[in-house]
Structures are given as C-alpha cells and as structure tokens.
Amino acid sequence: MRIVCLVENTSRKGCLTEHGLSLYLETGEHKILFDTGQSGIFLRNAQKLSVDLSAVDLAVISHGHYDHGGGLEVFLSVNEHAPVYMNEYALERHCAGPDRDIGLDPGLARHPRIRFSNDEASLGEDLMLFTGNSNPRPFPANSDGFTVIRDGEVFRDDFLHEQYLLIREGDRTFLISGCSHKGIQNVMHWMRHCPPDVVVGGFHLSNIPMDREGRQRLDEVADTLLEYPSVYYTCHCTGIPQYQYLKTRMRGQLEYLSAGDEWYETIKQEEIHERKLFPKL
User: Fold this and answer.
1) Which residues contact 48 (CB under 8 A, 6 or more apart)?
2) What domain count does the chain have?
3) 0.85 exceeded by pTM
4) For 79-102, how does the pLDDT look when each residue is reduced to its tens digit (9 = 90+)?
C-alpha cells in the first residue's frame, strides 16, 4: 500500500498548497485518485512527486465540495479511461451559509465517466464505498453552517453526499475519508466490530476553539479514537492546533499528512492469510 498526499493545506518537499485535499493511493491491484483539491495544483504536485495520474484506474470524489472535487475536470483531461465515483447527492447545490456556493459543477453529471454510487458500492473484492447514511450518529457533528439547496429550499446539510473508501490489502484494512463531516467518531463507531488498521483523512475539527470547552470536546474525540487499535493519519480540515492537541493525547497513534508526504507498507505474500470480508456497515 502506498499513499501520497498530492494536495493539502500545508506542504513539504516544495509542493504547492491550497485549502483542499487530494490523495494518490496505490495497492497491488489498483491506482486510485481520491479527491482532486480545488484546482489543478494536484497535477503539478503529482508530476513533482513522480506520480503518473494518466495511469490511475479509478477516482473517487469523497463529497460535493469544491475543495475536494474542483480539480476533477483537470483529472479527466489528463486521464482518458478511469471512471470517477461520486455519491448520487454530490452534485446537489452545496453552500456555506444560505447562498455561498461551494459545490461542484452540476454539468459533470453528463460526463460519460462519472459513476454515481448510493449508500454502499462494491468496486471489487478489495474496494468498497459506503456512506453510513442509514446508520445512527450517536456522537455530535457540527454542520458548521453548511447548507444544501433542494427544490429551491435551504436545508442544513445532512452530508448524504459524503462517502468513504475502504481498501483491503492482504489482511489489512484502510479507511480513507475526505472530511468526516458526519463525525469521525461516528464513522469509527460504525466500524467498531471490525475497525480499520489505518485511517487517513480530515476529521473536520478546525472549527473547535482551543479554549477549555473546546479542549474538552477534543478529549472526547481522542478518547473515542483510542478505543480502537487503528493508526490515524490526519490532514486538511482537522486543523493544526487541534491536531497538535490531539497528538499529546494519542501519541504514536496519530500523525499528520502534508502535501508531498508519502506513506507506504509492503505486505509480503507469506503474510497474506485468508481474505476477510468487509464488515456489515
């Protein structure tokens, strides 16, 4: 398994940066682009990091916000074959506040390589998309003023459009999330019977103030995540002060990914045992 951070709010190795997220994921079977950031910066960074996006065989857009799918047309122009999976609600009109549009171009619906997924979609025996939309959300998740416009009416965004990618490589499971708007605690709760070995993505905690009440809220997040043996690599909307505070609580279980960072793990054939099925979510 190889994970390269192409775009993030911070950078290393001289990479360009923007508010957004794009990850390149490579398994023994697949080359995956997960999100595209808000512009074409992910492509320029990929070239710098020797990642060939024309060889990607599938792409995933985690949710319908411009900072995760704004570069999609750039990807479609440099890659001529990969299908792009987004949730069926991803092209609704999504806003910050009542009317500031932060969504994706609805015209993308006409592109022949767009594939719309619903609550759960198998992309093969080792890849699965899921939303958790039908599952309870026992932990708080602040909508942060995000809204969705349906039939001309403004509603608080319920993030039906957000999906998560599960990857199985050998006996290891990787959970990839864009922003975890539904709450990273809730996402992990849904997977409590079969927690992932590695979790990668934003936790959407940057709105939490670093006062006494905010630190108490972060303590609750840390306590929940520490219930699982997972290792977490976070970024983007988690927030740097919030990450630094969580790091003091979670120590070796939490690290930060910046643009230019690369993580990889080699799974030897003799270490691969009987393939586990994905959990019922």
Assistant:
1) 13, 14, 15, 260
2) 1
3) yes
4) 999 999 999 999 999 999 888 999
Query: What is the chain's mean pLDDT, rounded?
Result: 93
Is residue 146 within 8 Å of residue 94, measured between CB atoms? yes
The letter for the amino acid at 145 is: G
**Is residue 51, in this structure, part of any structural domain at all?**
yes
CATH number of 60's domain = 3.60.15.10
Specify the pLDDT at position 277. Answer: 44
Residue 266: pLDDT band (50, 70, 90) is: low
- Please list, in sequence order, all residues whose beta carbon lies within 8 angstroms of the beta carbon of residue 22, skipping any fewer than 6 positions away: 5, 6, 7, 8, 33, 34, 35, 36, 37, 42, 68, 71
Is 106 domain-assigned?
yes
CA terminus-to-terminus distance, the chain: 23
Residue 177's nearest CA partner among 234, 120, 137 is 234
Indicate the SS3 state at residue 124: coil
CA–CA dist 76, 112 (Å, integer): 11
Q: Are the C-beta atoms of residues 186 and 140 closer than 8 Å to each other?
A: no
Q: Is 274 exposed, middle or buried (0-12, 13-18, 19+ CB in 10 A)?
A: exposed
Q: Judge contact between 228 and 254, C-beta under 8 A.
A: no
